[in-house]
Every structure is written in C-alpha cells, then in structure tokens.
Specification:
- By secondary structure, the protein is mostly helical.
- It folds into three domains: 112 residues, no CATH class; 371 residues, no CATH class; 86 residues.
- Helix content is 78%, strand content 0%.
- The longest helix is centred in the middle third of the chain and has 35 residues.
- The chain starts with a helix and ends with a helix.
C-alpha cells in the first residue's frame, strides 16, 4: 500500500471517529452549539464520503481537495451566521455564489453515495425554484434561504438526525462488531430448526431484529446477509429466494417497533404524537408483515420439499449463548423503559449504548481489544457520514418546498386527478412515496415523503398517525420494488443470484407490505388509536389473515399440493374481494377463501380418516 493510500485511509478513519464521538457526546451531554454542531456533522459527512470513494490517485486527490474546500465553505457559513446573530449584515454576492457551489458539492456527494434518484429530485427542485416557468426566485434569495439559514441544507432534518439518530447508528455498530448478531442468529436457528423452512424463518427473525436498529435495509442486508443467506441456501432454498428473504426481512425491520429504524423518534418530532402512541400503533401492522413473510416461506418450503432439520442436526443453544444475548435484549429493553418514563430519545440511545458497550466488553472477549472498539466506531462513522449527506440534501428539498409551496400544489394536483376517490388518491400517494424513497435510507426517506405527501393525506382527512405510517411503509418498501430494488440488489451477489430476479422475488415476499397501509386506512382499528373496537380489530385480523394466505399460496400455485391455474386465480380473486372496504364484498371474499381452503384440504382429511380406520381394523 502506497503512502498516499495509507494516509487517506488513516485520515478517513480519524474523521469517522470524530463523527461517532460527536454523536455520542451530543446524545449524552447535549449539543454544545447548534450551529457549530450542524456544520461539523454535515462537513464531516461530506468529507468522509468523498475520501472513501475509490479511484486513481488523481481522482482521490481531487476528492480530497473538494473535501478541504467544503470545510472552508462550512467555516464561511458559520462565520456569517454568527455575525448575523449580533447584527444584520448583507451577504455579498460572492459569498452567495459560494453557497451555490457548496450546495452543488452536497448534490455531488449525494450522487456518489446514493446514485441518480435522489440527485434527480434535488436537481428538479433546483430548476423549479429558479426557472421562469417555476417559482422564478432570484438566485441570491435561493442561496441565502437554503444555505445561510436553518430552513435549508442545515434545517430541521440535519438537527434532528444529528442530535437523535446518530447515536443509534453507533449503538448498532457496537452490537454488530461485538458478535451479538451471530448469537441472535444461533438462537433463532435453534428455535425454528424443527419448523418447515426453519433456517429461512430464523433469518427473518434475526434480520428483522437488527433491521429495526440499523436505519438502512441495504446496510442491514450487507451486514447480516453474509451469515443468513448461506444458511438459507444450505437448507435447500433457491439462491434467488434466499437473497429475497434477507432483503424483505431487513426491510421489515424499518417498520418494526420499538425503534423502527429510528423513524419512531423522527415521527414523534414531526407529528407531535407521543413516541409510545406511535409504537403501539405500528405494532400490529408490523406483526402482520412478518406473519406474511413466515407464511410465504412455509409455502416455498413445502413446494420444494425443504424439510425441517433432523433433531440430531439442530444446533444447541448453550447457557453462554443466552447470556451473550443479553447484550442485545437488555439495551433494547432499556430504550423502551426510558422512553415510557418520558426520557428523550437521545438519552435513551446514549444509555442503551453505554449498557451495550459494558455488556459486550463483559460477555465477548474479542471485543475487549482497542482494535475492536475502533472498528465499531469507524464503521458507525461511515454509516453516519452517508446519512448526514443525504439528510443535508433533503434539507435543501424541504427548503425549496417551503419557499415555493410546491408541496401544496402537488397535493392539489393529486386531489384534482383522483377526484373524490380516496382509494385513487392513496394509490397516487403510494406511487409518489415509492419513487421518492428509492435508494434513500429509512429516516431521510420518511422525512422527504412526509413533507411532500403529507399535505395530500391531511386534506383527505386521515388520522395523523395513519397518514404518516402509510407514507413510511411505501417510503421503506421502495428498496424492494423493481426496477430500483436496492436491498434486493445488495443481497443478490451474496447469494450468487441475478439482481433483477431477486428484486422481483423480494417484491413478491413483501407484497403484504403493500396491502397493510391500505388496510389500516380503511380498518384503523388495527392501529389501536382512540375509538378502536375489538370487533373491528378481529374483523381486520380475519381479512388480512385469509387474504395473505390466499395470496401466499396462489402466486407459487402451491398449498398442501400443487394448485391448478383456476384455483390460483380464484384464490387471488378471494384475496382482492376480502380487501375491498365494503362489508358485503369482503364477506363474499372471505366466504370464497374459506370454501377454497376447505375443498383443498378435504382429500387430505379423507385420507387421514381412511388411514385411521385401517389402523383400527388392524
């Protein structure tokens, strides 16, 4: 390794450590200065991302100069903001032009970290706010409002994510680096070994558990998939299916309480709804999603003859495994307890981090070396850096929306197209959320769809919690929706599968996630919000349960045995009818579903009865 490369890596690692240290300090001791903290987190984020990019010496030298230049622009930004706190100053055009250059660097870092989708959104809004056919704002006003203020690049998203979310990134990195993830997977494998398709079920449990902490389905796929995907393949599942299971399970972690990929805290901040109420509302829908995954895996295992592991091959969970699992479960319980007591999210995250670190030092000997600590902090810094870059870009997007009023115009456009149809309006919002969530981590995806799509759902009269969970689901599910199914694409190489085929398979596995948001809009009892009734809740359970089973068996054309084309079509029809928000139509669908299940199982029941009679005669 040459001196330039080695120096670049050391510098990048040092900046990652600094960003992790800032996150921990802010969560434990508060933000020393809001302006300085926001500038440091964004500046470090852009620098780390640029310095981490591969390329020739010349390319990396250019990126290093860009990182240095961005640091200078951050210093200029802070200087002007501090001066404006004392007395009003008119910002020179030269400094406003530099603000546009700095915003361009944020765009470039966003593109290199997250690809075209988010860059195109930023560029489209930049053109809209400046062009004569759009908002037609002066470039000087745009530069001042979106850079030298707290309503643009350094707006509320940067402040909240930097103050609340980053400590959970460090927390998750500590658990992953220490080996707590491997222990959790072993326990899940032992618990599901005797179930048909057990290894895939175990992967769902483990990936979902860590997915709720990671805040990024893609990062979770890469970190846990290297363990889970080979296990699923060894059990007898197809490589494409193994990768799709990991992608769908990791994606589901973002909607699973108590942390929900850290979105639960952001949603509480955006909506003003108590964290506890958000978690309660999200619990049953998330359980529905994972039950559908379990059902789909069960059918796939039956279809391909994947049998449970023989008892002799079941890995035993030792007392040491249970003891080490406390490094995961106790901090998670501490988060819940502290939040229920009314403590802040950052205090809960800081406390959980301290507890997890102490437990990992005590229970995992390999984590007692300084190298292991540094590895965890550096990895956390890398993830946090990318998150701060995308959040800064989303701050620009939100600033443009606030300046131009394009969000309200977009809402009016959707409502004018859909007319009085609630379902069509929801369908259009769903498509918008899927597009805007492509390639974006969970927290930023939620922030952007909440700002753009929120006004639409507010005008439709949906309860606030239902509206925001609806947007969250589709912002998250974009990572398993072809053609930009990034979580599936990340899992495919690990399994040795084709990316697009894996994306299609992951979409099929996550199909229930596309139904659940409509279910809790038309059947809000499952959110357990004020006014819910037990009969309404049980009715929603019946609808979702039968519709899920009909879909899970119809698409692969298998239940206890292979299904004919006609029976598969009837099952899909039954699922669609059951989900229609009309009591007579839903009853018809449920009746058809129950009839199809009964007729399918009748031969098996007759055969079992005949065998019982023959056994009695003997």
């Amino acid at each position: 390794m040459d001196l330039f490369t080695q120096g670049s890596r050391v510098l990048t690692a040092g900046l990652c450590l600094a960003l992790s240290g800032l996150a921990v300090h802010a969560a434990g001791f508060g933000v020393f200065d809001t302006t300085l903290y926001s500038g440091l987190t964004v500046g470090l984020g852009v620098a780390v991302l640029l310095l981490s990019l591969a390329g020739s010496h010349r390319v990396r030298a250019v990126h290093a100069l860009l990182a240095l230049g961005f640091a200078g622009l951050i210093w200029l930004w802070a200087t002007i903001l501090y001066a404006q706190e004392v007395f009003f100053i008119e910002i020179p055009d030269r400094d406003l032009a530099l603000a546009l250059a700095a915003t361009g660097l944020v765009f470039y870092a966003t593109f290199r970290g997250f690809g075209w989708p988010m860059l195109l959104v930023c560029l489209a809004l930049a053109v809209y706010v400046l062009a004569p056919f759009g908002a037609d704002e002066r470039w000087t006003r745009v530069a001042e409002n979106l850079w030298y203020s707290t309503d643009g690049v350094f707006g509320r998203p940067v402040e909240v994510v930097g103050r609340v979310v980053l400590v959970f990134i460090v927390f998750g990195a500590v658990l992953q680096t220490s080996g707590a993830g491997s222990v959790l997977l072993r326990i899940a494998l032992a618990a599901t070994a005797r179930v048909t398709g057990g290894p895939a079920h175990a992967a769902i449990v483990a990936s979902g558990a860590f997915g709720t902490l990671s805040g990024s389905p893609i990062a979770n796929v890469v970190s846990t998939g290297v363990f889970t995907i080979p296990i699923i393949k060894r059990a007898g599942f197809r490589p494409t299916f193994a990768a799709a299971v990991e992608a769908a399970a990791s994606t589901g972690g973002q909607i699973m309480p108590p942390v929900m990929g850290v979105v639960a805290f952001l949603m509480a901040d955006v909506t003003g709804i108590a964290y506890v109420n958000i978690v309660i509302a999200a619990l049953i829908p998330a359980a529905f999603y994972y039950l559908s995954l379990f059902a789909t895996v069960l059918i796939e295992a039956r279809k391909h003859g994947v049998a449970p592991l023989p008892r002799a091959e079941v890995e035993r969970v030792t007392a040491r495994d249970w003891l080490q699992s406390l490094a995961f479960f106790l901090p998670l319980a501490a988060i819940v307890v502290l939040l229920l007591q009314g403590r802040t999210a950052q205090y809960a995250g800081f406390s959980a981090l301290i507890l997890a670190t102490l437990l990992c030092l005590l229970l995992f000997p390999a984590f007692r070396t300084p190298r292991a600590w540094l590895e965890a902090l550096v990895e956390a810094g890398r993830v946090a850096a990318k998150l701060m870059v995308i959040v800064a870009a989303i701050g620009f997007v939100i600033g443009v929306i606030n300046m131009s009023g394009v969000g309200l115009k977009f809402a009016q456009a959707i409502l004018s197209v859909s007319g009085a149809s609630l379902f069509l309006s929801l369908l259009l919002v769903m498509l918008g959320c899927l597009v805007m969530g492509m390639g974006v981590p969970t927290a930023p995806a939620y922030l952007i769809v909440a700002i753009v799509m929120g006004p639409v759902l507010e005008q439709l009269g949906l309860p606030t919690i239902a509206a925001h969970l609806f947007m969250l689901y589709f912002g998250v599910l974009s990572v398993v929706t072809p053609p930009v199914a990034l979580a599936a694409f990340a899992a495919a190489p690990i399994a040795g599968a084709r990316p697009m085929a894996t994306g299609v398979e992951a979409f099929r596995l996550a199909l229930a996630g596309f139904v659940i948001p409509f279910l809790f809009v038309f059947h809000p009892d499952i959110l357990l919000i004020e006014g819910f009734t037990l009969p309404g809740l049980l009715w929603a359970f019946a609808i979702f349960g039968l519709a899920t089973w009909m879909t899970a068996t119809a698409l692969p054309r298998f239940d206890l045995r292979r299904l004919s084309g006609l029976e598969s079509a009837l099952r899909l029809l039954a699922a669609l009818l059951a989900l229609v928000p009309s009591l007579p139509v839903s009853l018809a669908g449920l009746t058809l579903a129950a009839t199809l299940i009964a007729f399918h199982r009748l031969p098996a029941l007759k055969n079992r009865s005949r065998q019982t009679e023959l056994g009695g005669e003997r």
